[in-house]
Amino acid sequence: MPISVVIVGSGPSGFYVAEALVKSEAGVAVDIVDRLPTPYGLIRGGVAPDHQSTKRVTRAYERTATNEAVRFYGNVELGQDVSLAELREMYDAVVLTFGMPGDGKLGVPGEEKKGVIGSAAFVGWYNGHPDFRDLDPCLDTENVVVIGNGNVAIDVARVLVKTPAEMTEADLPKHVGDAIQASPVTDVYMVGRRGPVEAKFTNVELREMGHLTDAAAIIDPADLPDEVTGDWSDRDRRLRERNLESLRGFSTAERDGKEKSVHFTFYAKPVEILGDEAVTGIRLEKTHVVDGRAEGTGEFFEIPCGLVVPAIGYVLEPPQNIPFDEKSGTVRNDDGRVDEGVYVAGWAKRGPTGVIGTNKPDGQNAAALLLEDIPQGAKPGRNAFEALLRDRHVRQVDFADWKKIDDAEIANAPDGAPREKFVTATEMLEYLDRT
Ligand code: NAP
User: Among residues 12, 18, 13, 130, which one has the least CA distance to residue 75?
Assistant: First the structure.
């Protein structure tokens, strides 16, 4: 009897767990469950639509998904269609890889106003994630403020100021491209509570901001230190030196008639979102960095804007009955072990950090623990799960169905674009019904 494993979440961490399991010598049957009809998690719904080369990693995931030991069950939701307790009854092991889908809170007054949209929602919207199809962000504004100095903040800023020609090869859904191009947005302020040395952008992403067709990267040279000081590893110091060099380049570059601007606004922390019901601006306090921490200087300023996008990191809103560690904000675990027969990997285990590849060793670790704890299979796994789905009339989407969706999206692509996405689960299921 194979070791039956169910992986909850089909993003990178889920696929790396599955890959490690099928590559092991152990006999395994691996089922991957996702609440959406589509696989690949943040690769489809998080990686920026104009970064298609990053999305190519799905080819490797597809090889895993089509391995004979693996099955995909899309449109099946943990906590809704099946509980963790039921999965534990049916499978020898359950691996939780549902990532961190929620938005962190700024914790400042006015955060609930219309026009404050966290990056998880905003990125989901421009990536055609079904949860955010109807987000309708307030783009009727010249100024947008993006809070945070990470790669997500850069993604958001870049997608807002690129020209249609620069987005030709992106898979931005049509309604999103139309909304962005119809908007009067000219100025995006990317606000970091600390300085350029502490910023978390990777250098490739930062450099790209210096090469946009119609948007200039603006930075006050006074914010740029002469050198990187502080206690960094050699690798981190080199990254920061490269970032400083890129920012220095921005500070001396000519505008070349570019009509839009991305303002790198360092040393500023949000203190209040302004406006009545809707956002009209943001109040910030200037900071300086003391021992790596942003400390307020008592000097305040405001930026008028109609949209604020906090890109300050993701959080987990765990389904019911998942052991949760309040302090770390992750699924409670001991290096990947959650409970007997239950494991966790990826962002749900270690928090929302690292690039896609960071999940590979993490997935391998979860697979190794599982195989160490469970040398042989004893539970029915797939057969019992499929019977449960049938009993509950759950409309599951298998990998062949997903490939039909994939093919249709590719066939519907506008010129130059890789695909035109279906943006609701209903559209996807209706399409499958018709074919
Ligand atoms: P991140 O890299 O952790 O950046 C979060 C930013 O938000 C930091 O600048 C942080 O400042 C700031 N922040 C946090 N709380 C704040 C608050 N209360 N007020 C003001 N600022 C606050 O997170 P991310 O950008 O969401 O990215 C998540 C992960 O995905 C990262 O590992 C990232 O590299 C990765 N990613 C990679 C790519 C790519 O490779 N192209 C693209 C997207 C995402 P402090 O530093 O002061 O805390």
Answer: 130
